[in-house]
Amino acid sequence: MPDISILGDAMVDEIPLGPWLKALNERICEYVGRDARNLQIGHSYLLEKGRPVGDFATFAKILREDILPLLEEYCYEDYVILEKIRQELFDPANRDTLIDALLAPAPEITTSPQALSSEATVIEEEEEDIDEDESGEHS
C-alpha cells in the first residue's frame, strides 16, 4: 500500500510528492471503485535509490513510462478521464503545461503545509543570494 510519509516533504518544482500521490490515489479509488484499493500507485514509483526523486526530468520520465501506462490500463477504453495527460506534454518545452495538468485535479495540494514550507525556503534562499550579491558589490 502507498505510504506517502516515506516521501516526507519532497518537492519536484511546485509539486509536493506526498500530497500529489495521495490525490492521485484518491482519484483512482473514486474512479475504479471496488478493486481500487489494490490498484493504487505505490510510493516506490517516486523513489530513486531509496530517496524521493528530486528533479523534474526524472519525475516526468516516471510518469510517462510507469504511472501513465498503469492509469491507461485502469481506464482501458475510457481515455476521456486521461485527456489532460497527453504525450506531447512530456516534451521539455511543455514543462509548465505538464505541471499545470498534474496539479489541475487537486489544486489544493499547492497550498498544503508542505508546499507552502518549500516555497518559503526557496524565497529565503533567493533573498540570501541577493544579499550576498549586494554585499559583494559594496566591498
Structure description:
Residues 119-123 have low confidence and may be disordered. A hairpin with a 2-residue loop joins strand 3 (47-48) and strand 4. The chain has five helices and four strands. It has one domain (4-137). It has 139 residues and is mainly α.
Main sheet characteristics: 2 strands, antiparallel
Q: Which residue ranges are poorly predicted, with pLDDT under 50 across at least 5 consecutive positions?
A: 119-123
Series of H and E elements: EEHHEEHHH
Choose one word for the global shape. Answer: globular
| Percent of residues in helices | 40-55%
Widest β-sheet, arrangement of strands: 1-2
- Nearest-integer average pLDDT: 77
Q: List the domain count as a whole number.
A: 1
Please state roughly what percent of the residues sit in beta strands, choosing from under 5%, 5-15%, 15-25%, 25-35%, 35-45% or over 45%: 5-15%
Give the assembly state of these chains. single chain
Q: What's the total helix number?
A: 5
Tell me the span between the first and last alpha carbons. 56 Å
Please state the structural category: mainly alpha
Rg, Cα atoms, Å:
17 Å
Tags for this model:
139 residues, mainly alpha, two-stranded antiparallel ribbon, 5 helices, 53% helix, globular
Structure at a glance:
This protein has 139 residues and is mostly helical.
Q: Which helices and strands, and how do they pair?
A:
Layout lengths: L10 E2 L2 E2 H16 L3 H4 L7 E2 L2 E2 L3 H20 L19 H9 L9 H25 L2
